[in-house]
TrEMBL record:
Its main location: membrane. This is Flagellar biosynthesis protein FlhF. Keywords: Cell projection, Cilium, Flagellum, GTP-binding, Membrane, Nucleotide-binding. GO terms for molecular function: GTP binding; GTPase activity; signal recognition particle binding. One of its GO terms (cellular component) is plasma membrane. Belongs to the GTP-binding SRP family. It comes from Candidatus Bodocaedibacter vickermanii. It holds the Pfam family SRP54. It is found in: Cell membrane.
C-alpha cells in the first residue's frame, strides 16, 4: 500500500489536491493541522487492494512449504503484528523471519567460533556424504583466493574413491596448495607450516557410525577448527533432526545449506536451522564451483518462500 501526503494552507485546499491527484475514491488515512498547515495522508482503493492481495498471497504461500504448524503460526502472527509498520509484503515477511531464525554469513577474513572468539582459521566442513562439502570447499577456496587469503585445502577424505581426484583437479586449476592428512600429526604439520587460510574437507560422515564420528571429533578438535555443518535442502525433517543431533556433538558454529536449486519448499531449510540452533550462513544453488555460495539473509529466504526459487532461474 502506497501512502500519498498532501499539504496546503487550508483543509479544503489540501482536500482539493487529494481529489485532483488521487480521484474521488481516495481514502483519507489521516489529517492533521500543524502550525497553520493542513497535512492529509491518503491512499487509493487500488493501492489497498494490491497491498492486501500481496499479503494474502504471502499467507497462502506459507502454507505451501511444509512448515511445522507452530512455526507457521509464529510467522503469520509476526507478519500480522508488523503489517502496519512494514507495508511492503516481502520486507514484512523478511522482518518476521529475522525474528524467528538466526542469519550469520561468516566473514572469511574475520571468523568467529560459536563462543564469539575471533580466530584466524582453519575452517572445517562436516556433514553427511553427498551434502556438497567438497563443492563448498572449492567455492570457499575461490573466494579466499579473490580475498588474497592464501588458502590451502587439506582433506581428511583420503579414502573416498574420487575425492582426491575431485580436489586435485580444482586446486591445480586454481594453483591452490592441496594436502591430505590421515593422522593428527600429518594434519598438525600441514596446518602449522601453511601461512594462510586453512580449508579442511572431511569424509562424509554416517552419523550412526560411532567410529567415524569419534575419528572426526578427534581430528577436528586437534585442528582447533571452526566447524561448519553442511546439509542439503529437501531432506526428510525427522531424518535430518536425528542427523543434526549427532553432528551437534562435533560443535559446529555455522550452517551452510546446499542444493537450494533442487528444492521448491523451504520449511525443511528453516527446520535445519531451528533444530540445529545454528545460524543460516550461506546457501549453495549450483553444482558448478564457479557459482559462489550466497550469503543467507532474511530477504533471500523471503524470496525463496514467495517465489519458490523462480528468482534463481534468471
Ligand atoms: N544441484 C546442486 N548440486 C550440488 C550442489 N552442491 C553440490 N552439488 C553436487 O552434489 C554432489 C555431491 O557433492 P560433493 O561436494 O562431492 O559432496 P560431499 O560428499 O559432501 O563432499 C556433486 O555431484 C556436486 O556437484 C548444489 O548446491 N546444487
Ligand atoms: Mg567430499
Amino acid at each position: 500500500m502506497k501512502l500519498h501526503k498532501f499539504t496546503a494552507t487550508t483543509f479544503t485546499q489540501a482536500m482539493n489536491r487529494v481529489r485532483k491527484e488521487l480521484g474521488e475514491d481516495a481514502i483519507i488515512v489521516s489529517s492533521i493541522e500543524e502550525r497553520g498547515l493542513f497535512h492529509i495522508t491518503a491512499a487509493i482503493e487500488s493501492d489497498f487492494d494490491t497491498g492486501r492481495k500481496s499479503f494474502d498471497r504471502i499467507y497462502e504461500s506459507l502454507d505451501e512449504h511444509g512448515l511445522g504448524e507452530l512455526t507457521k503460526k509464529q510467522i503469520k502472527d509476526l507478519i500480522r503484528s508488523l503489517e502496519h509498520k512494514i507495508p511492503e509484503p516481502s520486507e514484512c515477511l523478511a522482518a518476521s523471519l529475522d525474528q524467528i531464525l538466526h542469519f550469520n554469513p561468516f566473514d572469511l577474513e574475520n571468523l568467529k567460533d560459536g563462543a564469539g572468539v575471533s580466530k584466524s582459521c582453519p575452517i572445517a566442513l562436516i556433514g553427511p556424504p553427498g551434502a556438497g562439502k567438497t563443492a563448498c570447499i572449492a567455492k570457499l577456496a575461490i573466494e579466499a583466493t579473490v580475498l588474497d587469503l592464501n588458502p590451502i585445502v587439506i582433506t581428511l577424505d583420503a579414502e573416498k574413491a574420487g575425492a582426491i581426484a575431485q580436489l586435485t583437479s580444482f586446486t591445480n586449476a586454481l594453483a591452490i596448495p592441496f594436502e591430505k592428512a590421515d593422522t593428527k600429526e600429518e594434519l598438525s604439520e600441514h596446518i602449522t607450516t601453511h601461512n594462510g587460510l586453512v580449508l579442511l574437507d572431511t569424509t562424509g560422515l554416517n552419523p550412526y557410525d560411532d567410529n567415524q564420528i569419534a575419528f572426526a571429533k578427534e581430528m577436528l578438535s586437534h585442528a582447533a577448527a571452526i566447524i561448519v555443518l553442511v546439509m542439503p535442502a529437501g531432506l526428510d525433517m525427522q531424518e535430518a533432526q536425528d542427523m543434526i543431533k549427532v553432528f551437534k556433538t562435533l560443535n559446529p558454529s555455522y550452517l551452510i545449506v546446499t542444493k537450494i536449486d533442487m528444492c521448491r519448499r523451504f520449511g525443511n531449510v528453516m527446520g535445519l536451522s531451528i533444530y540445529s540452533g545454528l545460524p543460516l550462513s550461506y546457501f549453495g544453488h549450483s553444482p558448478h564451483i564457479s557459482s559462489p555460495l550466497i550469503p543467507f539473509t532474511p530477504i533471500e529466504l523471503a524470496q525463496m518462500i514467495q517465489f519458490k526459487n523462480s528468482f534463481l532461474v534468471k
